[in-house]
Design brief:
262 residues, alpha/beta, 9 helices, 13% strand, globular
């Protein structure tokens, strides 16, 4: 019997009627605008962005406040049916990664958010990622997104033991994407390391780094991924760790007061 062809991924448009309804709720939940520290200057639209996850709050915050349109890599388990999404959210996201206690409340929360998740993921322009040969599908749709002038945002941290301020490992999928772009286009693509702290309401965008610079040094994908991981951690230590919680309303009042006093 002939094997059925797997469905090819498409570049997400972000168009979702349900997300249009849900977006005000998402905006209210993440209504505190982060302070953006941009060390890179004008941002390229065709770029790869590597970020920490900041637990579950990083991706929606970045969707609302990152200054360039992006599509985002997300766990493929969240693209399954409702039962699969519920199990992943309950057992992996909440219990394993966020260290929540098993029980009715955790299961109910997972059940509800698993129902809403497809609309949110579609609105945020997420594409599924894999740890096997199906990653090739993710790379192909990401190349198409880049060709359409959209940046690709990746959350490559190893969060198997939970989400931490200081990242321990980066998986090299984004390095493979940069290599694929170079092979197809004959030019390197900027990769921006960024750090988002939802707790302190700070987003730091670093200057772009280029994968081919490290390939020419003879480094493999895992070594290159570690260099980016260290750079993202540097942003945390230098700009986030000892910073006060940013309050945009308080700062705006201070600016208005300073202008009046001139």
């Amino acid at each position: 019997m002939a094997k059925l062809k797997s469905k090819e991924l498409k570049v997400p448009t972000g168009k979702s009627f349900m997300y249009f309804i849900l977006k005000p709720i998402v905006k209210f939940a993440y209504r505190k605008r982060p302070k953006i520290i941009n060390l890179a200057g004008e941002l390229e639209k065709q770029a790869i962005i590597v970020s920490n996850h900041s637990a579950m709050s990083g991706p929606p915050t970045l969707e609302l406040y990152y200054p360039v349109k992006t599509c985002k890599w997300g766990a493929h388990e969240m693209f399954g049916n409702h039962k699969e999404r519920t199990a992943y959210m309950r057992d992996i996201l909440y219990i394993k990664k966020k260290h929540m206690k098993p029980g009715f409340a955790t299961s109910l929360k997972a059940w509800i958010l698993a129902w809403l998740n497809p609309f949110i993921y579609k609105g945020m322009k997420n594409v599924p990622t894999y740890t096997d040969a199906r990653l090739g599908k993710t790379l192909r749709v990401s190349i198409k997104a880049l060709e359409q002038g959209m940046s690709v945002m990746v959350f490559p941290e190893n969060s198997n033991e939970g989400y931490f301020d200081v990242l321990t490992q980066f998986f090299p999928g984004f390095v493979m994407l940069a290599e694929r772009w170079y092979a197809l286009k004959g030019k390197d693509i900027p990769v921006y390391p960024i750090y988002i702290s939802v707790q302190k309401h700070i987003l730091v965008i670093d200057k772009p780094m280029y994968v081919q610079d490290y390939v020419k040094q003879g480094l493999n994908r895992y070594q290159i991924a570690e260099i980016y991981k260290d750079k993202v951690n540097d942003l945390y230590f230098n700009y986030v760790k000892d910073a006060d919680v940013y309050d945009d309303k308080k700062e705006n009042k201070a600016l208005k007061k300073a202008k009046k006093s001139k």
